[in-house]
Design a protein that fits this description.
Protein name: Lipopolysaccharide kinase (Kdo/WaaP) family protein
Strand order of the largest sheet: 1-5-6-4-3-2
CATH class of the largest domain: Mainly Alpha
Strand content: 15-25%
Helix content: 40-55%
Bound molecules: adenosine-5'-diphosphate, magnesium ion
Number of helices: 11
GO molecular function, one term: kinase activity
Largest sheet: 6 strands, antiparallel
Organism: Geodermatophilus saharensis
Oligomer: single chain
Distance between the termini: 56 Å
Keywords: Kinase, Transferase
Order of helices and strands: EEEEHEEEHHEEEEHHEHEEHHHHH
Structural class: alpha+beta
Number of domains: 4
């Protein structure tokens, strides 16, 4: 027998003592854990605990096991929402299938289970929207799933928000990018499988009254289409509303859980056309990227927000210059011309009430609010002035951290 584990050794050590030579179905029940809320599966799937952690084991042909192992490994590296793979066991005696080992996704439930126990907190609408988000994310990354279903999707609460994870990548395919036809085919498969599973739940009297399987399944392509459009469409703005409309769009994408790669503004007679490249990114990436470009050290969500502003500023510089402006130049100019003036606008007696990056974030919100009211972009300087005059003084002084020293980057 051979074990291929990543990272080699560590997590897997205690797992090696398990009876890998036996068919999974014959393993001593004392070794196994009951996972009641799991989805239905084609293969034999069992759960074990080792070194205080839970793992899922799936018996599956070697070729597929290797395929799934490779893909899940890539997904994890790229920060895509999927279960994390530990390894595979191959060359088992008597020509037995391989076993794929994944780390149990903690605090997760299968969609199938959730649909049979609806709660006020997770409505059918929210569940279907979250499933649509997962598909859009995978499709943006060039992944054709081929088996999106309620059983193959896990669900988790993340700081109050809902998040869906891919659990079964056996049929998944990786492409540089997906065609419209591939996306729609994948979506069609998903709609069929979700519909069939809901009908099955209904047949077993596990589906609450008032949930119509076909209606719910048919809503998936609709939700997907509007999300795809929101994430990928090009917009045209008038020149005087550009900056804040770009910021608004980027914020909307972030709120939906998407990150922005590059922003391109192309001027034409009708105004500026905005093209946004949406992508999925690994955790902590924003902090590192902002630090690289500006030397600022802030928290992840703040970094995400600041980077968006930096990117829209860069697009504005490029448009003005009529040619490309490097990231480094844009970063330095943004720091000096946009960020620092806001920080400098904080009067000494109010400094320390909020972290500078948090103030900047609030000023961006304030700019958006003022621009909405005025119907034009009021600009960061005016927004900062208004913010320190009207909002900052009302921040409770007890939030002030005495040890905060406001330093210039
Ligand atoms: N890593 C994991 N974390 C949590 N649940 C899992 C994990 N792997 C599998 N499961 C559960 O087991 C079920 C079957 O696994 P799956 O990979 O879909 O097998 P199959 O290929 O036979 O469909 C899933 O629906 C899910 O509920
Ligand atoms: Mg499955």
């Amino acid at each position: 027998m051979r074990y291929l584990f990543r990272p080699p050794g560590t997590d897997g050590a205690e797992l090696l003592t398990l009876p890998w030579h036996q068919p999974l179905e014959e393993w001593d029940p004392d070794l196994l854990l009951e996972v009641p809320q799991r989805g239905i599966s084609r293969h034999v799937v069992r759960f074990v605990a080792a070194q205080g952690k839970v793992f899922a084991l799936k018996e599956i042909g070697e070729h597929l096991a290797r395929h799934e192992y490779d893909l899940l490994g890539d997904f994890e590296e790229e920060g895509l929402p999927s279960v994390s793979v530990l390894g595979i066991c191959v060359d088992r005696p008597d020509g037995q299938d391989a076993i794929l080992v994944t780390r149990y996704l903690e605090y997760s439930m299968s969609y199938r289970y959730l649909f049979s126990r609806p709660s006020a907190r997770q409505s059918v609408d929210q569940l279907m929207d979250t499933l649509a988000v997962l598909l859009v994310r995978l499709h943006l990354a060039g992944i054709f799933w081929g088996d999106c279903s309620l059983s193959n999707t896990l669900f988790r609460l993340d700081a109050g928000a809902l998040a869906a994870y891919l659990v079964d990548a056996e049929t998944a395919e990786r492409h540089p990018s997906l065609t419209r036809g591939q996306r729609h085919y994948d979506l069609d498969l998903a709609r069929e499988r979700v519909g069939a599973e809901l009908l099955d739940l209904q047949y077993g009297e596990l589906l609450p009254d008032g949930v119509d399987p076909i209606e719910v399944a048919d809503s998936l392509p609709v939700r997907y289409a509007s999300l795809w459009d929101e994430v990928t469409h090009e917009e045209v703005f008038r020149a005087d509303e550009q900056r804040y409309r770009v910021a608004e769009r980027l914020q909307r994408l972030n709120d939906l859980g998407f990150d922005v790669g590059e922003v391109e503004l192309v001027t034409s007679d009708e105004g500026a056309r905005l093209r946004v490249e949406t992508r999925v990114s690994a955790p902590g990436q924003h902090r590192r990227e902002l630090f690289r470009l500006t030397g600022l050290e802030v928290q992840e969500n703040q970094a995400r927000r600041l980077l968006n502003d930096l990117r829209s500023f860069r697009a504005y510089l490029e448009q003005k210059a009529g040619g490309p402006v490097s990231e480094t130049v844009a970063g330095a100019r943004w720091l000096a011309e946009v960020y620092q003036p806001v920080v400098d606008a904080i009067p000494p007696e109010l400094a320390g009430r909020l972290e500078p990056a948090e103030v900047f974030h609030e000023v961006l919100e304030h700019r958006w609010f003022l621009s909405e009211q005025a119907g034009r972009d009021v600009g960061t300087t005016e927004a900062a002035r208004s913010y320190v005059r009207t909002v900052l003084p009302s921040m409770p002084p007890e939030l002030t951290t005495p040890s905060v020293i406001v330093t210039r980057p």
